[in-house]
Amino acid sequence: MKKIFIAMMFALSITMGTVVAQGTKEVSVKDNHVIVMASNCEWPPLEFVDEAGNIVGFEIDLLKELEGVTDYTFEVKNVSWDGIFAGLANGAYDGVISGVSVTDERKKAMNFSDVFLEIKQSIITLADNENPSTSLDELVSKKAGVLIGSTSDLLLQDSGLDIDIMSYDSIALAVEDLINGNLDAVLTDSVVAGEYVLSNKAFEDKLQISGDLEGISEPVAMCFNKDDSFHTDIVNAGLKQLEENGTLNALKEKWAIL
Predict the structure, then answer these.
(1) Is 130 exposed, middle or buried (0-12, 13-18, 19+ CB in 10 A)?
(2) In 3D, which of 189, 206, 201 has the Cα closest to residue 132?
(3) Among 24, 146, 209, 215, which lies 20 to 30 A Cα-Cα from 158?
C-alpha cells in the first residue's frame, strides 16, 4: 500500500511539475537560449568532478557539442540522484542527463529524447575473490551494493531473490564499502563499472568485472517533463546531427565507451 501511495503522489507531482515547467521554463529558455540540465556528477565516465573541480565526462561533452549545432547553451546542475526526478517535476531545471535508462515505467511520467547510448548492468567484485558472483542468481544470500533508486536497485528489488540489498547515495561509497569488505559485490551500469575497474588507478588491481546480467541492455537518453516537446525537439535535432557527422561515436571513443 505504501508503494502504491508513493507512486500516486509521484505521478501527481510530475503532472503538477509539468504545468509549472511548461508555464515558465519554456518562455525563459526561448528568451535566453539556456537549457538547464540536472546531472548526478558521480558517474565517471558519464559525468564527474575532476581534480580541478570541473564537471567533465561523456554526457557533459555531449551537451557541449549540442551547443554547437542547436544554438542553445546547456547549463549543468550537480544534483543528488535520489531527488533528481522530483526536481524535474517541480521545475527546478528543464531536463535530466545522468545515465538515465529509458524504462516503460519512467515513460509514464517523463518525456525522453532519442537514445544515444546502450549500456548493460555489470557486477563488480574484489579482484582477489576466488569465487566471485557472475550472475544475478549468484548474488543470492550475499550483500550487493547499489545506487539508491538506480536501475540496478530496481532490478534487485524486482528479482524476488534473497539478496541483501545495500543502497548508497553514490556508487563511489558502494565501491569503497566493497573494498573494505562490507559487501560481496556492487551492481552498476557497465560504463561506470568499466571506469572503476579499467580506468581508475586508485582501484588498480583491487577490483574486477566478474559478470554482466545477460539479456539486459538499457537505452540511455535525456529526460524532460511529460509532453515537453519544446526541449525534446531541440535535443533530438542536435543528436541527429551529431550522429550523422560522426561526433557521437568520436565522443564514445574518447571516453572508452564501447
Answers:
(1) exposed
(2) 206
(3) 209
Q: How far is CA 139 from CA 100, 136, 164, 215, 241, in A?
A: 24, 5, 9, 17, 42
Name the residue with cell 564501447.
258
Q: Name the residue with higher pLDDT: 12 or 115.
A: 115
* pLDDT value for 97: 98
CB atoms within 10 A of CB 40: 26
Strand partners, 101: 220
Contact status, residue 80 vs residue 21, Cβ threshold 8 Å: no
Confidence of residue 31 (pLDDT cuts 50, 70, 90): low
Instruction: Report pTM.
Output: 0.68
Answer yes or no: is pLDDT of 73 > 50: yes
Spatial neighbors of 180 by CB under 8 A, at least 6 apart, are none
Span 7-30, pLDDT tens digits: 333 343 443 333 333 333 343 444
* Length of the chain counted residue by residue: 258
> Whole-angstrom Cα distance, residue 11 to residue 20?
14
